[in-house]
Amino acid sequence: MLTEQERSFLDAMAKAPIPTDVKGLRAAMDTFAPMMNSNLPEIGAFHEAVELRPGLTADVSVPKGNGPHPIVVYLHGGGWIGGSPKTHRKLGMQFAEAGYLTINVDYRLAPEHPFPAGLDDCVHAVKWTGENAKRWNGDASRLAVGGDSAGGNLTAATVTSLAAEKYAGPAKPKAALLIYGVFDFPAVIKREKDTAAFDGMVRAYAGAGYPAILEDPRVSPLRAVKPGALPPSFIICGAADTLLPETHSMAEALKRADIRHEVAIFDEMPHGFLQMDVLSGCKQGLGKMFDFLRRTI
How far apart, in whole angstroms, are the C-alpha atoms of residue 144 and residue 102? Predict the structure, then answer.
């Protein structure tokens, strides 16, 4: 049962206009970033904008203690056209507070850098982590990849891409965190009624390949799900999120492929709720996710 404060917050969110352009979305995320990143947790150390290769950086959140620390490579949300490690700083630090060396990747954004630029950055970040995590006493043999919204899409695309290339390096993912993601673009486009905002994101990310590229399993990673394509996966979504059908579709695909997975659906929670600590589902959702990681990696 939601509190009055929670209901007031959700009512205000529902009335807020949704930007349909790149500049508007980026401005909106920057506006809300201070709220989403208030009361940062205490962690061992924080390193901003660590270079992974020219043009690609990540924020590194280090847990307290000596380790060796299990690792989360985190891919932020923002519709493929916005967001950054800064907008998701608190979330990255909460992983570190829970004991995970967290690599919060600043992958390239569309429309300046359409597919496959962002995905290439994410794949590179996982491999880089395997080779460099010891700098912060990270254990690359215990690595998860996770992300929210667009980052959930990129997480599924990253782990299936690594599986497709038969990657056997030190950072082979042992778990995936699929947080209210888009996993099948054509299905979402067909299902959505008010598509102005989503359509703009899709066209920006797909670039010159639109619409044919939407069928590519690296873009719509639900199509890449087969036995062995993903590690054990945690899928989480709010019941009030329009992307809830994507969560169910991914869960069904993982079941068909006999891939271990857990699904967490939170009543009345909206898109992005894991960054909204005013909502009870935020703490509960993080708790379930961290419990999955403890049991998996």
Answer: 10
Provide the whole-model pTM.
Answer: 0.97
CB burial of 189-222 (b: ≥16 within 10 Å; e: otherwise) equals eeeeeeeebbebbbebbbeeebeebbebbbbbbb
Q: Is 149 a catalytic residue?
A: yes
Q: Which of 69, 113, 241, 280 is catalytic?
A: 241
Which structural domain, as residue segments, surrounds residue 265? 4-296
d(C-alpha 210, C-alpha 174), whole Å:
33
Number of other CB atoms surrounding residue 125 within 10 Å:
26
Please count the structural domains in the chain.
Answer: 1
Clarify whether 241 is annotated catalytic: yes
CATH at residue 11: 3.40.50.1820
Per DSSP, the three-state class of 71 is strand
- What is the rounded average pLDDT of the residues 200-227? 97
Interatomic CA distance for residues 119 and 49, integer angstroms: 19
Token reading at 72: 């989360």
pLDDT digits (tens, 9 = 90+) for 152-203: 999 999 999 999 999 999 999 999 999 999 999 999 999 986 678 889 999 9
Q: What is the pLDDT of residues 153-163, one digit of tens each?
A: 999 999 999 99
Sign of CA dihedral 84, 86, 90, 95: positive
Catalytic residue among 69, 88, 113, 149: 149
